[in-house]
Design a protein that fits this description.
The protein contains 19 helices and 28 strands. It has 678 residues and is of the alpha/beta class. The longest helix has 33 residues, at 71-103.
């Protein structure tokens, strides 16, 4: 079956992020931000995916036979692609970003550029600020080697002892975890001079090694395996196992050593021996690492070098409603963040907490803000005597600790907290409120494609549904019943598609119906928007649909293992990806259904983990107005000829162009589409 390896495909996605830094039409500070996003993405990729590949390379031949790909070959391909991208990253930064900064009188200086006043300033800065944090260590072969902190910056120093003339190597920790990475220097009026803390350490390192001549310095960084390997999840205390694993995350085995590609071979060989590294552990970069720190690059108040702000639009039908729940009872409502304000979602919980007729509130927490009005509302509701139940997924990668902390706070406030299942993640984005009306309980639900997270709601593009439709709310109640009791619901799900119950099977049925229509000569179309498409069974089903004449359009932000455009296999499939100012995060499934479109929103991507090992929810859109709005939104996405890229076997990420002479950027058009509806 034609198939692109998921890790190779992910690198293609991250290259689309890098393309935003390349694009001269993107404002300068946004280009710098995309360099940071690219680097942050890559760091996580190495901590998890590359660490996993390295582990697979080392397993026994018997174990490797169970894997349907060669991990060594994949790792080699991954490292080759990353090296190419890192070279491109350095070129963009040095040949495009730095000159453009200079053109706006923003100068990123190195030691050789400093005038007398700036040099004195840095000497003082080093003595007063850096000296307490830098950690100089001489490296001696065959002795106990120093421990490198996960993701921390170090300077590898090439020294010569003045008295004996002998060569010596040393390490100095760069305290970018304690001090600003970018230090603003005394500057003439109208200009802004900045130096990176790395270069402050470079110019001052001689203070740390009296009796030695510093010949040169090169920056390095070690990334460690950040996966939580929890053995035998089905026994013992899962929470304690996760807490223990979190403590070990920063001391895991090396996933990569990032080093300055100008480093001499002799020094690199010494470091490999010193830290027990192999060739596959090495990744050359430019002079600077931890480029995710460019999120903090000072903007000097130059707003004209940023994107024109798009202030979130109020969702007035709910935000201005005098009777919040009555408005939902009257008709379904949808919000589309970050184009819409997130206030309506927050108010859903705050209104439920304060309303005397509300008796129960339930929610699934996967990722949540560290400071959250939603969580505060839940605690307030509990203290007012309401029954509040929160399911917390503590295996949400890199949010485990935050989720455990919230679990403790909620428990102390009297909230009933349920935690992760062994061997299964709960990824649904659902909430349910029970309100007594006319002496009868009435259910109100909120379902979304994104997390209950006030911060990411400002940058992730997601769609949510407020509804009192019994067809949906009754089944949401069944999902919560399962999460709280782990007892299989007595009734089947007829409206919701729920992971572990009917999600995969129902999706296949919907595709099969389009195949049947195509074979009968009827119009047959499928449009799927998601973050990732990796599940081989679903890809095979889409290939089958394409070969029978079903027209398929895919909008995939990230991983896409399907290969479109293959004769007799996927000739009827077209795949595009949009990368722009907001992170495309909504999942939308549209099936033509012989002209009576079925539209679903979902928390689930089409990956094995989502369809086989998670509790996910896909929910139908029954309201005609909302369904048309989502179809319009998809149409806007498919017309994008500015930020859309074509995905294919070559993975060149070429920009999609249509016949229109008018630039059409989907995210901008979506904002103004919603603004016109205010």
């Amino acid at each position: 079956m034609p198939y692109i390896n998921r890790d190779v495909s992910w690198l293609s996605f991250n290259h689309r992020v890098l393309q935003e830094a390349i694009d001269p039409a993107v404002p300068l500070f946004e280009r710098i931000k995309f360099l940071a996003i690219y680097s942050s993405n890559l760091d996580e990729f190495f901590k998890v995916r590359v660490a996993n590949l390295r582990n697979l390379v080392r397993v026994s031949k018997k174990t490797k036979k169970k894997i349907n790909y060669d991990p060594k070959r994949t790792l080699k391909k991954v490292l080759k692609v990353v090296n190419q991208q890192q070279t491109e990253f350095s070129r963009i930064f040095e040949e495009e970003i730095l000159p453009e900064l200079n053109s706006h009188n923003i100068n990123l200086l190195v030691s050789q550029d400093l005038n007398h006043e700036q040099a004195e300033f840095l000497d003082s800065y080093f003595q007063n600020n850096l000296l307490p944090f830098v950690q100089p260590v001489l490296l001696v072969k065959k002795k106990i080697r120093p421990f490198l902190n996960n993701g921390a910056l170090y300077m590898a120093c090439n020294l010569k002892e003045i008295e004996s003339g002998e060569r010596q190597y040393a390490l100095v920790k760069v305290p970018s975890d304690h001090l600003p990475r970018f230090i603003q220097l005394p500057s003439p009026k109208g200009s802004h001079n900045v130096i990176m803390i790395d270069d402050v350490v470079r110019r001052s390192v001689h203070y740390l090694f009296p009796g030695y001549e510093v010949k040169d310095t090169f920056s390095i960084k070690l990334t460690r395996d950040a996966e939580l390997y929890i053995d035998d999840e089905f026994s013992g205390d899962l929470l304690q196992k996760i807490r223990k694993s979190l403590n070990n995350r920063n001391i895991g085995p090396a996933a990569r050593l990032v080093y300055d590609r100008e480093m001499p071979e002799e020094l690199l060989t010494f470091l490999m021996a010193c830290f027990d590294l192999e060739e596959m552990d090495l990744l050359p970069e430019g002079r600077y690492h931890n480029n995710a720190d460019f999120f903090k690059f000072p903007d000097f108040g130059m707003s004209h070098l940023k994107q024109t702000p798009l202030p979130p639009l109020p969702y007035t039908p709910l935000e201005s409603s005098d009777n919040f729940f009555a408005s939902i009872a009257k008709s379904d409502h949808s919000n589309h963040v970050p184009f819409h304000s997130y206030e309506s979602v927050v108010r859903f919980f705050e209104e439920a907490a304060s309303n005397p007729d509300v008796t129960h509130i339930k929610i699934v927490q996967y990722r949540v803000a560290k400071k959250s009005r939603i969580m505060k509302a839940l605690m307030a509701a509990s203290q007012l005597g309401k029954q509040v139940s929160v399911f917390i997924e503590v295996k949400a990668r890199f949010d485990e600790e935050n989720n455990l902390d919230w679990g403790e706070k909620l428990t102390k406030a009297g909230v009933t907290v349920h935690y992760s299942f062994p061997g299964l993640k709960v990824h649904s984005k659902i909430a349910l409120v029970t309100k007594v009306e006319k002496n009868q309980p009435k259910l109100y639900a909120y379902l979304s494609t994104g997390n209950f997270h006030e911060v990411t709601a400002q940058i992730y593009s997601d769609i949510g549904l407020f509804t009192a439709d019994k067809r949906i709310t009754n089944e949401v109640a069944r999902v919560f019943s399962f999460l709280e009791t782990v007892k299989v619901p007595g009734q089947n799900f007829k409206h919701l598609l729920v992971g572990q119950f009917n999600l995969r099977e129902k999706l296949i049925d919907l595709i099969d119906k389009e195949i049947k229509n195509a074979k009968a000569g009827k119009p047959a179309k499928i449009i799927l928007k998601m973050n990732s498409l990796q599940d081989q069974k679903m890809i095979l089903k889409l290939y089958e649909a394409s070969s029978t004449g079903v027209k398929i359009k895919l909008l995939i932000r990230g991983i896409c293992c399907l290969i479109p455009g293959i004769k007799k296999v996927s000739a009827n499939i077209e795949v595009r990806s949009i990368v722009d100012r907001y992170l495309e995060h909504s999942r939308v499934f549209v099936f033509h259904n012989n002209g009576n479109e079925k539209v679903y929103l979902s928390s689930a991507d089409w990956m094995v983990r989502n369809l086989s090992y998670r509790i996910e929810v896909a929910f139908p859109i029954y309201d005609d107005t909302i369904r048309q709005e989502i179809l319009d939104f998809i149409d806007i996405q498919l017309k994008d000829n500015v930020k859309a890229r074509l995905l294919d076997a070559k993975q060149l990420n070429e920009y999609y162009k249509n016949d229109s002479d008018i630039a059409h950027a989907a995210q901008l058009e979506t904002y103004f589409y919603l603004k016109r509806k205010e």
